[in-house]
Amino acid sequence: MSILSLFEGKTPEEIGGILTGELDSFVKARIEEALNDAFGGEIEDFIAEWLQKGEGAVRNGHYERHLKTKYGPVAVRVPRDRMNLFKTRLLQPYQRSTDDLEATVQRLCIEGMTLSEITAFLKGDSDLGLSAESAAKMVRKMAGEADAFRSRPLPRCVVVLMDGTYVPIRRRYGDSSSIEKECIEVAMGVTEDGKRVILGFRTVPNEGSSSWGDFLERLKARGIGDPKLFITDGLQGMPEAIAASFPAAKQQRCLVHIQRSISKAVRVKDRKEIAEDFKSVYGKADAAETFSAFDAFLSKWGRPYPKLMSSLIAIKGALFAYLRFPKCMRSAIMTSNAIESFNSCLKRQTRRRVIINSETNGLIVMCQVIKDYEQNSRGAKYLKYMGEEEKQKLGFK
């Protein structure tokens, strides 16, 4: 049946009613989708937090809640856990205080709803009425707080981990828009008392030496001091930028990333064996054994893969910088696993939300991800096995 047949014999008023109804149905479905995705993200974070504490938490279905909006009733599926401990922070039942509204606006913004969608939803809910200007004011307040958080003074750091991850971002150009993947540069620091902290982030179209260099200079101006070690996966322009801003610092390449790169660069039949051989190199107990194993590795694989072995020789100093530090901290500083875990949190948010809708939205989302990450890892020591004498030698308190 042709869509035009829907309008046959209808007055202009009736046609307008049909179009409005279709639009309302579309917007209502969008709100339902955003809210249900938000609830799914909350229960995932709740279960992950309990697992980190060493306690079990299991999903136990959901219950439906019907919300009144200007587009009609919205049915949402609120998840439950088996012990009935999960409570959604997104919708508080029958509460109208400013704090409750701000928390709701923040969660909706983080989950990817635009300002107009947030306003339409809350304006239509009899329990959470909110004007467009009030919603905009709350979003501006959140953006201001997020910007202040991003610019806050930083603690002195002994170790810095750096990485870049790509997320989808919507860019608007006049009346049109496009979705493109852009790089978010992230830096994590290990403070003088051994704690992890996200130092900063920023979005750039493409990473390179100029972008990393400017990023590092900003971190320096905010007070990170003179780190002794940078841990990276060798992204384009990063080693050069570190050398320019912190010439005295050592650089350690993530050995897990190196191992993956080696495996991808060889024939399929050799992948497992060469990966195991390289892993045995950095699994040795001391520097002499490590370098001896590395020489044997180069000798064994040099004939079938001469260019690959030459590339490893060229970055030998960055492969084994961890050997210059006490044994008790080597396992923590030979990989960038710590910052990879933060980037996984960020990826989960962007996968759940599909896109970052604007610079303001992105700023709010990133700061909230950082706060959630640091809240969940509060008190965890990055280098917890280091003795007092070793700490003093390295500049730790």
Structure notes:
With 397 residues, this protein is α/β, with parallel strands linked by helices. It has helices at residues 12-52, 98-110, 115-124, 132-150, 209-221, 238-245, 255-264, 271-281, 287-301, 306-314, 316-319, 327-333, 337-353, 359-376, 388-394, and strands at 59-69, 72-81, 157-173, 176-191, 196-204, 229-232, 250-253. Strands 5-4-3-6-7 form a 5-stranded mixed beta sheet, with helices on both faces. α1 (12-52) runs antiparallel to α13 (337-353), α3 (115-124) packs across α4 and α7 (255-264) packs antiparallel against α8. The longest helix has 41 residues, at 12-52.
Explain briefly what this protein structure is.
The protein has helices at residues 12-52, 98-110, 115-124, 132-150, 209-221, 238-245, 255-264, 271-281, 287-301, 306-314, 316-319, 327-333, 337-353, 359-376, 388-394, and strands at residues 59-69, 72-81, 157-173, 176-191, 196-204, 229-232, 250-253.
